[in-house]
Amino acid sequence: MIQYFRAHQKLPDDFQSFEFRRSNYTCSLSPEELAVQRRRFHTQASHDGRPAPRIAILLVEGFLLYYSAVVRTLLDIRLFIRIPRNTMYKRRKERANYILDNGEVWQDPPFYFDQIVWPAYLEAHAGMFECGDPEHGKAIAPQNDEAPDGGALQHLIVLEGESCTKPQLALAACNVIRPSLIR
Question: DSSP letters along 80-146, please?
Fold first, then answer.
C-alpha cells in the first residue's frame, strides 16, 4: 500500500477502509482548526505563492509500525507518540472495538493487554530507545537506516503523548509534517 501510494500519489481504486466503523472514529481537530491546517498545508506546498491545488499525504499508523525494517525505509517522516503503560491500558479499555482489515470486529479477551499487547510493545520498541526502555529512554539515533527489525531508526521524532490532548498531538504532528512539503 505504501509503495503504491508513493508511486501514484493516491490509494488504489479498490482500497477499502473500515476505520469509520471504529467506535471512537472522530477527528481530533475541530472543523475550524482542520480548515486552518488544510490552508497551511496547501500554502506550504505552494510553488508560486498560490495554494497548491492538491497535496497527497499518507498517514500510516500502527501499534508496532516501526518494528519492520522494510516498512521503516518507506516512511519519510517518523513520529512516535510515547505514552506510559497505564495510559495505554486505559485508552485500550476505552476503545469498545477494533476493526480488522477484513472488516470483522475484534474485542480484546481478558488479560490480552497484560499478556500480549504490552510485552509485544516493549519487545518491538526496545531497540529504538536507550536502555531498551520505550517508556522513558531517549531515542537512539543511528548513522543509517540499516538496523534489523526492531532496531533503531534515523530521524525518529518522539512526541510525549501523556502531557498532551489528542488535538494538541494532532497539531504537533502537523507542525512536524508541514515543513517537509516541497516548495
Answer: EEE--HHHHHHHHHH---EE-TTS-EE-PPTTHIIIIIHHHHHHHHGGGBGGG-TTTPPBP--SSS-
pTM of the predicted protein model: 0.83
Question: Do the Cβ atoms of 81 and 159 come closer than 8 Å?
Answer: yes
β-sheet bridge partners, residue 156: 78
- Sequence-distant (6+) residues with CB within 8 A of 107 are 96, 97, 98
- Residue 70: helix, strand or coil by DSSP? helix
CB atoms within 10 A of CB 41: 17
Residue 97, φ and ψ in degrees, nearest 5? -155, 170
| 119 or 60, which is more confident | 119
**128 contacts 67 by C-beta, under 8 angstroms:** no
CA 81 to each of CA 15, 50, 164, 172: distance values in angstroms, whole numbers, following the listed order: 27, 33, 10, 10
